[in-house]
Amino acid sequence: MAEVIWTESALQELDAIAEYIALDNPSAASHLVQEVCDTTERLEDFPQSGRIPPELPDSVYRELVVPPCRIFYREDVSRVLVLYVMREERQLRAYMLGDS
């Protein structure tokens, strides 16, 4: 069983996305955050369940998609490090996943 650890930057990005959604629909924002947390929690038992990002085919990174979010993480022995969260429509840049 792996421990899921969120980086500060990933939490900040998720918070920013939720705040933006909450401007129009606070309930939807709350639901999104809960769904993202539930989905990443499953990584404790299934750390390789995410797909390899199409933009980074030969990398150690994986991603989960919870519309409208992409959640990037990497597995590290007995931990799963959630490194970055972004909206689906944004273009991924490799520096966004710097070793946090």
From TrEMBL:
Keyword ATP-binding: no
Keywords: Toxin-antitoxin system
InterPro entries in alphabetical order: RelE/ParE_toxin (IPR007712), RelE/ParE_toxin_dom_sf (IPR035093), TA_system_RelE-like_toxin (IPR051803)
Phosphoprotein among keywords: no
Family of the protein in this entry: Belongs to the RelE toxin family.
Record protein name field: Plasmid stabilization system protein ParE
Gene source species: Aidingimonas halophila
Organism lineage string: Bacteria, Pseudomonadati, Pseudomonadota, Gammaproteobacteria, Oceanospirillales
